[in-house]
Each structure stands twice: as C-alpha cells, then as structure tokens.
Amino acid sequence: MKKSWIIMSFFLTFQLSQAQELETILLAADDASKLTENYLNPAMKGLMYSMNGGWYTTAKTHKKFGFDITINANASFVPDKEQMFSFIDSDYMFLNLPNGETSLPTVMSENDTETTVDISIPREDGTFKVASFNMPGGITEDLPVNAVPTPMIQLGFGLPYKTDIKLRLVPKLDFDDNVEASLIGFGLQHDLMQYFGPLEKLPLNVSVLAAFTNMNVTYAIEDESATDDVEVNNGEAEFKMNTWTLQAIASLDFKIITLYGSLGYNNGKTTAKMKGDYTLTYDVEDENGNPSGPSVRETISNPINLDFEANGVRATIGTRLNLGFFKIFADYTLQEYNTASAGIAFSFR
C-alpha cells in the first residue's frame, strides 16, 4: 500500500523524473519561471481540487466513540482548455519557437511531443548567449484517464455533541532515495439536525464540514546527462500544498442505501521550488548568428519559486451502499476541475 500510494499521489514527480529533464528550462534565464508555471499549472490545480474530495459519505455523524476507516481515490479531470497553453512572444524576453508554434502542451496534455525552444540572450558587447532545449510534452498518455489522482486513507471518530473528527495521515515516506512525501489532514463534521427537535427522527440528516489538508513532496534532481548544457549540484524540487474546504452536507440515510450531496467552497495554495546550484552553458554568437568567441558558463542558485492557487464553489452528489459495517460509495463533484471519488469504508456505531 505504501508504494502504490506514493506512485499514485505524486505521479507528476515520477513522470518527470523518468523521461524529462525539466531543469533544462533553466537555460531560459528570466523566462524559466513563466514557462515552468504554464507547464505545471493544471497538475498543481488538479491536485489541490482532488485533495479536497472524499471527506464524507453521509451527513450523519457517529455516535460518541463510533469510528470509521475509509479508503478512497479522488480523480480531478483536467478541462480540455488546460491541456495546452498559448505561447505569446511578448510574455517572454529571450525565447523563440523555431517551427512557428503558437501553443505548447502542459504536463496534463495528451500531446507528448517535445518542442524545441531557442534562447538568445543579449550581452553588453553586442553578442548573444544562445542555447536550445526540448520543452517536454504531456504525460496523460501514461494515465488511464486525463485526471489527477489522489488516493486517501482516512479515520473518522465520533466526539460528544454529535461531532466527528477526521484524520488523514501519511507519515514521511522515502521512495528510491529520491522522493520524500508526507500528508496530514484534519476535518470536523457537526450534525445540525439535533437542533430541530422531532425532525431528528427523519432519515434526513444535515451537517457542516470544515477540513484542511497539507501535503509536502521533495524530489532529488539528479544530473543524469553529462552531455547537456545544465550541470546539477544538490538539485531538489519541492512542492508544498495547503488546501481547505467548507461544505454544507445533506443525506437521506436508509438501511441499505444512502444518498448524499453538498454545496461548499474550496481553497488551495501551492508553492513549487527548484533548489540547488545549476551551471548553465551557452554558445556565443554575433547578431548575424555566427560563432563569436568561446562558450559561456554561469551558475545560478535556487532558481525557481512559484505559487499556484485553486479556489471556487463546489457541488457534490453521491451514493453509498450499506452492507452492515461495510460501505461502498461513489460521488461526483462539479467544480473548475470536476472530481470523481470512489472507495470503501468500515464504519461502526
């Protein structure tokens, strides 16, 4: 379970490490951050929307000291418009697409074609530092669907006053000595039907939920190619994600089946950093494109520091099959990145 959770949850890190040398984007100098942000944006947003899913399968809270263990998988679907991003010349100072392309695939594109990007950076003596690199294509051809997956294991526990506390916890895990990952989340769900007297006897249940999740991933960037124009020393990619959600939940709870739905709001923020020292090598050319002197080497440190956000309203509808203490459930959430959730639960009291 440990290995599969890491692979599914942090698929982005593994896909990049297997086939792409994303650090070559650093040759783009001051344009590197903008290009990296446009490329990663749908994966970062998809993860944040996905992390806010699967907190409940009913509006009914446990009796005091009741508990449940829930295993579920969320998948946030990337809109078609987010699979590509426009390459607008005025957004970049030093970049050019030699084949005349006007758009590039994002990491969540079905188009896995690499695109050559040319770099030309003016120098004080009138010459130019020049280089080129291959911008990576999308990775979704390697996924079952074009969606960002996030599996979860969750514990719910009944407190007094018809309130449940929920915990998501994955202690720091290491994978192949390259990746460290951890996740922690807390939620509180409070029953509102207790304040409506006789209505409490109906199969209808209404509650409110507030939940927060934090996920941290670090990935060691290795210098796998001695022939490219970027040398890596102590390279590391770091992702820190914080999400929260506030939802009003209603459910009809019968013996065999539960129907549930909710309205709410999501918010998420992510920082993505590329740390370490990177030595970049450029050729030198004159204004006519002729070689002009020896190549130039320069070292930069901690070159990438990006922020991503995802927020907006959400609406969920779902159903749960109740087989004694064993539950099977599935739901679908309408939001910017629509999200499907499914799983099983063992619930007592």
TrEMBL record:
Specify the domain of life of the species encoding this protein: Bacteria
Tell me the Pfam families matching this sequence.
Answer: DUF6588
List the keywords (alphabetical): Signal
**Is the Signal keyword given for this protein?**
yes
Q: Which residues form the signal peptide?
A: 1-19
Q: What name goes with this protein?
A: Outer membrane protein with beta-barrel domain
| Record organism | Ichthyenterobacterium magnum
